[in-house]
């Protein structure tokens, strides 16, 4: 038995007098509980404010161990998988999780469960952000499918609910699922177990094989940001204590190992569909680059000035560029580890074959794309020359409007004819027609 002096988490004055940071206390409590739940498997099931105090040094102390829970490894893996499927809004994956974990009985139509979950994901009026609200919503949806929680999971739900309630005392806006996500990603990256690697792939790769570029970008950004913060909080002097959620969630050696594992999966036979989608996305990104950078420079236009909506290729290109920028920052923190892995991968024949596939696909695609872009450029230049000559003959907007009318008349006569449809200057003519909507823009 030991006497411990501490400050109740509900004691605002005491916390301020001790100079304790509320955010760090929340992070520390969340880290402790998640580590108990997802790593150790033996956890405090009732971490409400009365069972936790903060010491003057900033440590958290747990009291009252009368309600403890134990969760086997396969349940811990299942809990992480449920979270990933929930974040991905993968209703079928979530329904299968419920079946494998014993939340719904054998014989229930899994597809019906998935349809009910998907309907709830689509209904924004029923969306909830806090943990208790999500659980209430889940119970409402699953009531008709004999949904029930095994005793082990019932204690987990209680622990997470109590944890969120305790954290809300310090920060009313706290969301336990959202805040747990970085730790869960850290577990996926750090654990080489095949089940955890499979869940990581599910997080980043859709069932059809396409890449979730938004998730990949967020993951790389989180690794870069948190690794940078860890380096800043861990100076050689060792004076400051690092944020537990951040410094312990992303170990760079584990990140590199997980990255290599993911690359090897993509290059394997099982990753064939992923490679097909990767080549497709690379081609879309190349098209977007050609349109924005090359054509934009030739036409002296900014992408936003064209008024055309962003394509899938533009979105992919932006995410890839951002991802590489974040990755570069992460590589700087452990260049030896990353370089060793990248060199090792670069020497594999699978990388050579896939690189050739990408290059050949780009060459075939751009073989037709570049001439089209060239004709568009020439057409615009020629038509601009005509417009400038016409404008030099008149000094007022009326002349421009008169020319626009004659242009519209001529364009209307041509439009729809076979000759016009096959004309290589057609795109340039249509571009100029849009420009003529604003005669002032024609006065150079």
From TrEMBL:
<dbReference type="InterPro" id="IPR011009">
    <property type="entry name" value="Kinase-like_dom_sf"/>
</dbReference>
<dbReference type="InterPro" id="IPR050154">
    <property type="entry name" value="UbiB_kinase"/>
</dbReference>
<protein>
    <recommendedName>
        <fullName>ABC1 atypical kinase-like domain-containing protein</fullName>
    </recommendedName>
</protein>
<dbReference type="Pfam" id="PF03109">
    <property type="entry name" value="ABC1"/>
</dbReference>
<comment type="similarity">
    <text>Belongs to the protein kinase superfamily. ADCK protein kinase family.</text>
</comment>
<feature type="domain" description="ABC1 atypical kinase-like">
    <location>
        <begin position="1"/>
        <end position="95"/>
    </location>
</feature>
<dbReference type="InterPro" id="IPR004147">
    <property type="entry name" value="ABC1_dom"/>
</dbReference>
